[in-house]
Give the backbone structure.
Amino acid sequence: MTRKHRFAAWIIGLLPLASLLAACSSAAAETVPQPIAYSHRIHVTDNKLNCRFCHSSANKSQYANLPSVEKCMMCHRSIATDNPEVKKIAQYWKERKPIPWNKVIDLPNHVYFPHKKMVNAGIPCLTCHPGMDQAGTAVQNLEFGMGFCMDCHRKKKVSIDCWTCHY
Amino acid sequence: MLDRRQFLKLGGATAFATLFGGCDKVQRRLIPFVIPPENYTLGEALWYASVCGQCPAGCGIVVRVSEGRAKKIEGNPLHPVNRGKLCARGQAALQALYHPERLSLPMKLSGPRGSGTYKPVSWEEALSLLMGPLRKAKAEAPPSLLMLTGPMRGHAGLVAGRFMKAFGSPHRIAWEPLGPDAMLAANAAVYGVRDLPEHDLANARYLLSFSGDFLETGISPVHYAREFGRMRGDRETIRGKFVHFGPRLSMTAAAADLFLPCAPGSEGFVALGIAHVMVRDRLTAATAPAGRLADDLSAYTPEAVERKTGVHAHDIVAAAEEFARNQPGLAIAGTGTATGLDGAFQCAAVALLNVLAGNVGKPGGLSFPNRAQAFAKYGPEAGLLAPSPESGYAGMRAALEKMRGGAFRIALLSGATNPAFTLPPSLKFGEALSKVPFVVAFASFLDETTSLADLVLPVPTTLEAWGDDLAPVGHAGAITLCQPVVEPFHDTRSMPDILIAAAKELGGEPAKALPWGSFRECIEKAYGGPGGEMEKALQRGGFFGEATSPRSAARTGSVSLPKAADRPPGGDPKAFPLALHLYPSIALYDGRGANLSWLQEMPDPISTAVWRNWVEVNPKTAAGLGLAEGDGVTVTSPSGKITAHVVFNPGIAPDVAAMPLGQGHTRYGRNANGRGENPVSLLPAGEAYALQATRVALAKTKLSTTLARTANPEGQWKISNLM
């Protein structure tokens, strides 16, 4: 086996590894496709809806919660019924099927993040979800590194004990 | 060419890359509800209070419900029966809710009767199939309808009772195999009250227990276990002493300070021996009718009792003296005593000790709360809501005769008490039922009984149903409310709901007797409806804190000595050398829990065996028969023959073989079927439902199965030291 051959064999072997690295580095910037082209901007900025109108358990639970189809239809029975995206919701409602949203914002499994603690402490939603009020479907504009959390916890003089956030 | 080393390097790199190349960001779905459940908050659990339906004890439960799913069941801390505690059987009710073999649709028989082959039908078709024979039965004189259920307490009992009365049929049987018939008869004879007493264990200083496994499977095991804990540890300077007599070292016996083994069916004689010493040595209470009993008791000297029971005379004298000097004390008869051939005598002999010690109606003794008082507003119908806890065996035998005679056109079956499994086979329940032209079963699972039906109607589990309940003991006058803690998983309808609908269809008297639109409406009307007192009661689990006045036990001053029938267990002692002691399993009870894998895999506290039944023998007896631990044996009685694995129990009387009830199912789903054989098939069909009714012989045999145990028996019992 010549040196050239050996080099070629290594390249072939490492191709999948390279593709993995490429995929990982591009993941953060990618827009996640959603079944309905929902617009946060129209609801939050244009129509001044409070975030918690739809994410109703953000102050009550670990999870902020996505609205049920029933909740969407509370308004969209009469508002913007001609909009093709609203028609999609109406179809889900008619078929009594849930909307299969794709998850956008994610934390590693070893992190415990209770929404209610932040919301009840008066932290605005946009602190961790910047640009959401101008976005269409949900976006993650911030990489949640540990430093981001620690900075804020130090500034607010709240616990930075490991067990506060890690299981 | 690639050499070996390069090949491995390249192969490794490729495998690594291929394996971890899949670690791209996985799209995960977030699927919110279409219509969220009531009071729903994602990630936050709600606790709903209800009542446990796994055995007749009627404990209060609270169920943790998260995202509309029941996740965990605990005892209701406010409930007077169990005060926040719950047994394993109660915890396992979750598995019944999610069971893959639960019936989800009405089913019509599609093969020959008893084949267990069904096809699903709509509720409309099922109800029309039910109404046809019901109408015909109603038109006949006398109406030929049989209703065979488990115990139905609260308004479910009222609905069933009124339906049958309006229908004109008196044939309503509530079958409960472990119903304390003998205790009720004994209490009527000794205390003058045909009911179960409250034992104030927490304030007692001394406890004599007679084959009473009250910590495991008695009338209300969680209630008694809690009271027992208080008797032992709640007082600063007093730790109540506990002496247990019985044929076998059970978990309850193992908790005693002193366990004195006696021959099965002889517990009553031990009690009379103790009574003899108390009267002879003037150790009775001043109020006790000791003088009148002295002559009758003269035959039961400690020495005579020793010959009959195997308990040493000096132990009897010591127990009598300690019992008398450490008052208040209690004597309790348990399932083992009550299910003997002359159980009423045995229980009466034990009850006599409480009378002699003067403990009736006193703190640390026993009292009889008036159960019917909770439902006093129903007048004569109160008995339908708070029925006597008896087994219904006499009614069952009479009904079997009538079934064979073709007296019934239609039979309605319900409840978990499964007569085809729990009745001795010689009563031929299945054959008698086959004489009834149309059989309808209301059930959550197919079992040996429901698979004999023509039409099976699926009912909700207790976690999905409305109802109310009054526990047999420990209730302190509290009515427990039962509410659906989750939306029903399947298209099920409860038996009272179907009876109410059927009554409407029938019109006339039945429709007038059941005037509600649904069973929920019946419950709401009875308790003031939503918004009122009922809403608060639902949050707490029931109406607690309204203590009932105790009934006076009137006749204790003139009590007479119970008559010993002295009927030995059936079978020639030479051919069948061992007395069979059958006891309810702590996990499976009478067998109703056998389809739940949590209960199957729960190790028995004494044998540590799981998933199969066994026969317990004394290691010395086993050595005489050439049996080793785990060996297969045939257990033969005059009435039947089964096989089982041998488990050594050094704390069992040498002439006894003991088996737990509950295994041996043939049609109760994949968790229950084929796990040993049903020991009830060894029993003769007698006048009473007696579990201690026969003698057996053991013979070694080869079995293809093995008995799984979680502890090494050699290590546990040190067999070599005992032999």
The longest helix of chain A spans residues 3-27. Chain A touches chain B through 39 residues (CB under 8 Å).
